[in-house]
Specification:
The chain is an alpha/beta fold and 600 residues long. The protein has 18 helices and 22 strands. This is Ribosomal RNA methyltransferase FtsJ domain-containing protein.
Amino acid sequence: MGSEVFRERLADALAAGDFELHCRIYHHRSFGRLHFFDTLAVDPISRESFIVELLCRAAESETVTEVVGGQLSDLRLGDVVVVYDAAVDLRSPLPPCTLTLQVHRLKLTETWRGLFQKGEDRTGPGGNWKHAFHRPAFHDAIDESYFEELDRRALERQREKRKAKAKGEKQAESEEEASDSPADKAPWTRTREPRAMLQCHMPLAQRLAEYLGGRVLSACSRDRLVLVDAPNAAATSRAAHAPRVPSHLHSIIQRIFFVDAGRKAPSVAEACAQYLAAVFGPVDHAGVGDLWDFLCRQRHIQCFPRELESSLSAAVRASRWAAPGAEAKESPAALALPKGRCDSMVYADGLLWWSTDVPRIIVPEKDQRSVPSGAYWKLLEILDRYRPHSMTRQRLMDLFQGRGCAVDFGASPGGWSFCLATALQIRRVIACDPAAYMHPLVRRLAPEDERDQFLEAFTPEERKDDAKHSRLLAERKEEAETEPKGQISHWRMRAEDALVKMKQRLDAQLPPLALVVCDMNEELEGACQLLYQVFEQKLYEAPCLAVVTFKNTCKSKQEFRRRKSAMLLRLQEEKVLTQVQEIHLFANTRMETTIVGQML
């Protein structure tokens, strides 16, 4: 229904002679003198995005397409053109295009290279552009079956290459890969409701999208954006306080951008004009000195990717709101946003998405002023996802929070130990690792006479890191202690020796273990052997939570799966662990997985 209205609106505008359509090129094919450009355009009324096919004719054709200030050969993928004169082709276009325009006159207004250029030519090795243009993955009113078919064919080609390269692989592995095919996943449903774009690193984008039921958008940098439904995004964008990000996603999500389906445009100039009109209204002058400086300091504007700031600042300073003229209707002070609120301009899927007065959410990913390492978030994710017998998180916390003692094998630099002592408030934590280094945050929780006992054994690199972290901690404002914290003791020894020491001190100086965590770089059988010793020597009190990371040190995936299954079966048959769950944490690499269970 939207595409038909869009077609009629374009036809009426062409007939009236009042026509100007901004399009971003994402695909090009040519046949002799005919050039077909698949472009992404936005309806100026409904603000829905459509794919429009531009039919252009090169020189020596019957009807030549005029390119203002250039020629057709100058157009590249990602460039933005403005169509001034065209005719609607009555023939149905090839999917996924909505309609075809026979173009008589157009102009190149924005190049892809110029969009993220910052003063000099930003090319990588071999002359490749730093930010490659990717095919859009999401649109409002487009049947994506065409794109899904392209993805299916690409997946088939990759699968054939893998089979040809490794003919000895078992059928089980190929079936596991087939289960990850996009065709097997639930179809993506579109909505006009506000949504959220989550910025994360590229390797984890697909896993985050599957976990949250979202979709990975095509971006132009190492980071990716995951589009997720946000039923309460409209209320959130108006709320005085930012929403809480789940703790176990702190190591994944970097920023959250709230977007509205009606606030987007193909070009920076058009998006900038819409944004400034929304902020300052239909006035000739914003009433501020340096308009870009005002947006940065008073409106706290954020851009994704960061390189977009250069093009956006140029568009802002070239706009009519920055030109000398009449004063704005509202004073600049009335337009300033409070702390925690911001405006945003995000490039994703060939479009610029802008927002005003939304929560400013920057997640302190692996912030080493607040946590020692990313391992801190692993344990919080386990508490969020481990559900024995459908037990709630609160019930799980009631069972293990505030217990007497825990041990962390392979502790350095102390992320898990710090989480045990702070988030779980374990009164005594044994951080066992032959390495000398522990993060300054961890050493702060050690007995005063033990805090610096291994400083002389630090390597030069560890001394450098320790000085940096100590400086950052000194610069951080000290917060009032509201929650009790446990004590961390660093036992610089191997795990086997630590178990002997625990046996000697049990009851007299050391309470039984309530939690056992292990993230050692050890074969899975070696890690499980520690669980056997704790179980057989009765070093624990039930229920004791056990968390072990299984590292894939095998030569093949099949061998790792076989050894993992055999070890899990043995642990459960011999009742060393019960209520066992395998959880692939976001912080886990592809070469490891996490096993969680209880000793009863």
